[in-house]
Amino acid sequence: MNENDIQAIQKLLASPKKIAIIPHRSPDGDAMGSTLGLYHFLLQLNHQPTVIAPNDFPEFLAWLPASETVLIYENDREKSTAVLQEAELVFTLDFNALHRTGEMENVLNKLTVPMIMIDHHELPGNYATYTYSDTTFGSTCEMIYNFIDFLNQKELIDKTIATCLYTGIMTDSGQFRYPKTTGTTHRIVAEFIDLGIENTEIPTLIFDNNSYERLQLLGRALQNMVVFPEKKTAYTVLSQKELDEFNYVKGDTEGIVNYGLTIKGIIFAAIFIEHRDENIIKISFRSQGGFDVNQFAREHFNGGGHINAAGGKSNDSLKNTIKKFEQIVKNLSH
Questions:
Q1: In whole angstroms, what is the distance from residue 198 CA to residue 116 CA?
Q2: Which residues contact 230 (CB under 8 A, 6 or more apart)?
Q3: pLDDT, block means (10 residues), the chain with 334 residues
């Protein structure tokens, strides 16, 4: 952020305000970690912050401090809309286009108060009054740490804030394995550990609290895996029938796409998940090395994200979507 923007934001935050903090739809660890981390920071500055998520977040993130205070727009549109309309300032975190909020976009588009975007995805929109956008960061949570530092308030980062920010850094970095994990990332995490975060327990809370049904669903996804060794590509599929068979709940398919990349020689992985209630096929892409799944998702499946992690969607049938993907893969040269 430039110095003028920082000074303007410092003035905005100099007196107590009603502030709305928004993550993207289907929020992940980075979205919830960044919004709740900022929430606890703003509380220390005597503001009245409220996190409003477009839809519910996974149960494995429900232990995050103050997660019980998060308003879910889809569950309470009236109250959520009222809070947004009363807000004097809005932060949008971990996304850079308002359509990523689903139906909330209609309300956000009508607001006239200042908006502050903090995000690490490519091609940011121009809706925000102040924008902190940097694709070199592996997580928005790391950017929130910097944002607090920009405001000369780093001493306010306590164990609670650090716990939230660590969660997003750890999950969005693939447990510190992705290329955008830097020495600075580890130095920030070291500060958090010194503040007393439960860095050995947090991964367990997120990754090891599986239900029996979730493990069965994972097993089915692995059985459904298709590999194209000559194209260094693997994909899997989960139909609505299979989701229902194993009593799917939000978050159960988190991370399954990564299993394709554990196959020797595979650099491109995908998962296709049928959601008949939304009449959509949700797609996740992952890659290793230089294969750009952000470009792939944007070009072929109305999506986007990062070079090595992106999402997309299809309004076609599951069968036709897979057929399209296979045809594209056959023409890949990598």
A1: 30
A2: none
A3: 95 98 96 98 98 95 98 97 98 95 96 98 94 96 98 98 98 90 98 97 92 96 98 98 95 94 97 94 94 94 89 96 97 80
If phi > 0 it is left, if psi is from -120 to 50 it is alpha, else beta; for residue 84 that is: alpha
Q: Which residue has the tokens 């739809």?
A: 25
Beta strands at 48-53 and 130-133: parallel, antiparallel or unpaired: unpaired
**DSSP E strand boundaries for 78-200:** 89-93, 115-119, 130-133
Closest CA to 170 of 139, 201, 194, 145: 139
Report the candidate in 220, 221, 230, 237 with the shortest Cα–Cα distance to residue 281. Answer: 237
Is 73 within 8 Å of 52 (Cβ atoms)?
yes
Please say whether the beta carbons of 129 and 115 come within 8 A.
yes
As given in the structure block, the two tokens for residue 56 are: 């519910």
Please tell me the predicted confidence (pLDDT) of residue 102. Answer: 92
Euclidean distance between CA atoms 171 and 180, whole angstroms: 13
Global confidence as pTM: 0.90
| The pLDDT of residue 127 | 97
Structure tokens of 182?
Answer: 């830097």
CA distances 107 to 44, 55, 180, Å, are 28, 15, 34
Q: Provide DSSP, 199-240.
A: TTTHHHHHHS---HHHHHHHHHHHHT-EEEGGGTEEEEEE-H
**How buried is residue 219: exposed, middle or buried, by Cβ count under 10 Å (0-12/13-18/19+)?**
exposed
Distance from C-alpha of 220 to C-alpha of 161, rounded to nearest angstrom: 38
